[in-house]
Fold:
Amino acid sequence: MLPILVICVLLPLAASVFLRMVLDSTQDGQEPPPVDLPMPFIGPIIRMWWMGFDYYRKHRQFPIYTIRLPGIRLYVVNSTSLISAVQHHPRTLSFSPILARVAATLIGASDAGCEVLGDDAENGFIRRFHDFNHSSLSTGPGLEVIRTRFWNLVTSSHSRQFLESPGFTGMYQWISHEVMLATSESMYGAQNPFRDSATRAAWQFVEPPLPP
Ligand SMILES: *[C@@H]1O[C@H](CO)[C@@H](O)[C@H](O)[C@H]1NC(C)=O
Ligand SMILES: *[C@@H]1O[C@H](CO)[C@@H](O)[C@H](O)[C@H]1NC(C)=O
Structure:
């Protein structure tokens, strides 16, 4: 009887002490504070599974904190004032795994799509997206092309036709239509999916409270 009792008490205790030592020796002092310390690595898995989103609510007293899981660190940003500072470091911090999961849940991205979004490599989608889009959309010739295309569309005859069309309901509808077409056209170019009225209708259906 005694040995079983000893095992039941001592084993978790020893595991906890050992895992805490592993955590302490691998956690840098400059990283956000780690949470869930009584049973590092294992405790967070069980509690995240058990509590779901409430797990994150429990640690709201920290502006930012670290959840240590086996092989990964999750830095959770709670304070809104830290978000832009975090977003300025796409090379130090990896957003891809989270993005792939969000895409799967929110927009029903396919497995292949999630794989593309989750690719963390140097020439992966997210890295390239940041580099290309940052340079294209900074002040300069790229942005100028987009801006010119936008104004050409807003002042085009197509826009006037829409104003005079029978289904026209008012100013808000006109502005939504123009902004959606002009921004999507200037970003996507010839392959703009929003040229298709079915895509526009689907978008309005899915996101009615969002401006296009
Ligand atoms: C964390 O977020 C909650 C909800 O937005 C907020 O009430 C709380 O003050 C935040 N905590 C810190 C430390 O910023
Ligand atoms: C943004 O990045 C994507 C992915 O790399 C690229 O296909 C697209 O052309 C870029 N758009 C702009 C405006 O640079």
